[in-house]
Design brief:
Layout lengths: L5 E2 L3 E5 L5 H8 L2 H4 L11 H13 L3 E6 L4 E12 L4 E8 L9 H15 L5 E7 L3 H10 L2 E12 L2 E11 L8 H13 L1
Parallel strand pairs: 5-6
Antiparallel strand pairs: 1-2, 2-3, 3-4, 4-5, 6-8, 7-8
Helix pairs in contact: 1-3, 4-5
Protein name: Spermidine N(1)-acetyltransferase
Keywords: Acyltransferase, Transferase
EC number: 2.3.1.57
Length: 193
């Protein structure tokens, strides 16, 4: 079961459903899927994935990405680390269902998370890490507003080739709220009546 915590036009973000561990196990063991993230070398059993999902669900801000019309799980997104003193966070996203790749679901999920991070959690800087071979992800992050701020050169080796790890970020002032600011403005207008 999923709950519409943050609602977009194509997808919504929901608290994680622990019953989805077998779906995640299938995705993580698909080399085509896992190559785009940090755990391509992991061999994951359903039991191990269930433990990871339980841990993620206890962490404060991890969400399932669910396709809106079909209520179908397509991945997850969340903050892997939050520094509430300095108002920064690192985010991660994972679209495991390949049927939804390249169709704007990842970008919309990121925008929902950014809206939540900047307008509810009062973050100032949200950053992420991506490998240089993951061109579709880099393009998606740039379209949402992330900028490259640094690199760890040749930080990843796959099939005898070396790739950079790219660090990208976006500041609160660079992000234009599409969801939460509109809801707050609407409530303010209603209160003035």
């Amino acid at each position: 079961m999923y709950f519409k915590k943050l609602l977009g036009e194509k997808c919504y973000l929901s608290p994680l459903n622990l019953q989805d561990y077998e779906i995640y196990t299938k995705w993580i063991n698909d080399i085509d899927v896992s190559l785009g993230v940090t755990f391509a070398s992991a061999l994951m059993t359903p039991e191990q994935e269930k433990e990871i999902l339980e841990k993620l669900s206890r962490a404060e801000y991890n969400f399932a990405i669910v396709e809106l019309k079909k209520d179908e799980l397509i991945g997850n997104i969340g903050f892997t680390h939050i520094d509430f003193i300095n108002h920064t966070a690192e985010m991660g996203i994972f679209i495991g269902n390949k049927d939804y790749w390249g169709k704007g679901y990842g970008a919309e999920a990121i925008e929902l998370l950014l809206d939540f991070g900047f307008n509810i959690l009062n973050l100032h800087n949200i950053n992420l890490k991506v490998y240089s071979y993951n061109k579709p992800a880099i393009k998606c992050y740039q379209e949402v507003g992330f900028k490259e701020v640094g690199r760890l050169r040749e930080a990843k080796q796959i099939a005898g080739q070396k790739f950079d790890q790219i660090i990208m970020d976006i500041l609160e002032k660079e992000y234009k709220s599409k969801l939460i600011k509109g809801l707050v403005d609407k409530r303010n207008q209603e209160n003035k009546k």
